[in-house]
Amino acid sequence: MHSFLLNTPPDIKPGPDVLEIIPETSIGIDEIRQIKTFLSRKPIGSTQNTVIIRNAEKLTLPAQNALLKTLEEPPGNSQVYLVTNHPDQLLPTILSRVQITIKQLSNEIINSQSKDLLSKLLESTGVGERIKILNEAGFTRESFLEFLDNLELILHNDVQNSQLSTLNYQLIADTRSYLKSNVNLKLITTYFASTLR
């Protein structure tokens, strides 16, 4: 596989055979065309062409769809790196075509309160109990976003844990999206509690 998902940029020196996409706002179809053109040319000073897409979560939906074929079969001897801390904002079809090499994050980075709260939620017996647990946590919009970020880190670090099977990137992405869309916080926590089974 020549396509990778990372949470930190790869240690690759800039050069004529390296194309780095650093978005200001979003990454659209034009940038994907630029990537395809770059990868189709012969490398100048090395054996391969390399593309690094920073903040890959900023790929628009049409751009992600356009990128699928390139990720599946990068031309020649080329490599494509998607760099993001929010893989949940990428299409599942994108994630299925890349080798996920998220660097292990230390447990100190993950808020221990988030771990404890997640344990309580996973051990609860029903939706009502989960709603009560979340209400008692006294979340604000900002602290709930931070909690979601921590849950994402927990998922990255412990993908083998079968207890986390009800927690997935899509649930985190949907909940984050509702938070950013100014949906009522109580409705969001209720949605989260009822979807986490």
Written account of the structure:
With 197 residues, this protein is α/β, with parallel strands linked by helices. The chain has two domains: 3-100, Rossmann fold, CATH 3.40.50; 112-195. The chain is built from eight helices and five strands, in the order E-E-H-E-H-E-H-E-H-H-H-H-H. The protein has helices at 29-40, 61-72, 92-95, 112-123, 127-136, 141-157, 169-180, 185-195, and strands at 3-6, 18-21, 49-53, 78-83, 99-100. The chain has a five-stranded parallel sheet with strand order 2-3-4-1-5, covered by helices on one side. Strand 2, helix 1 and strand 3 form a beta-alpha-beta unit. Helix 6 (141-157) runs antiparallel to helix 7 (169-180). The longest helix has 17 residues, at 141-157.
